[in-house]
Amino acid sequence: MLELTILGFLYEKPLHGYELKDRIQGLSGHVRPVSDGALYPAITRMVKAGLLERRTEPGMGAAPRRTLSLTAEGRAELFARLRDPKDVEITDGQRFFTLLSFLGLLPDRAAQAAVLRRRQTFLDTPASFFYEDGAPVRAEEERDLFRQGMLRIARATGTAEKQWLAEALAELDREP
What we know:
The protein is mainly α. The chain has 8 helices and 5 strands; from the N terminus they run H-E-H-H-E-E-H-H-H-H-E-E-H. The strands form 2 sheets. Strands 1-3-2 form a 3-stranded antiparallel sheet. Strands 4-5 form a two-stranded antiparallel sheet. The longest helix has 29 residues, at 145-173. The chain is globular and about 65 Å long. It starts with a helix and ends with a helix.
């Protein structure tokens, strides 16, 4: 997801490494903080792969600044990742939010809708954090107060997300 986030933010505009890190932190926040030990090696790999371009510019002080920008190959990679996300990027809530934050960059409404339909299908499949004899445990069946809370919160969130997905799909399916 880090690479998708880098591609997405650099699609919007060229950034310095520290600006990019701030934007990533804002998106993932305390849930999945990004360290320099993860960010800068990812940037280096992406530069070597031809997805990013790094330019050195004079800094405000003595140190030069490196600006990162997306190449044509990087743009193509971003669109490919948005068009065909991995299953975990559909099923994991935080990863899906990251995907969702850049899905609007994909110029094809039908491709955007296809991604949302995958999430909708996932949410329509009965699931739980807890199972009894292979069946998902519902909040009303759970005796533990805290597990019941988890299940109720997840259901409420899922209900709201399903409603938004239906609205978004109706909008995308309408002729522009």
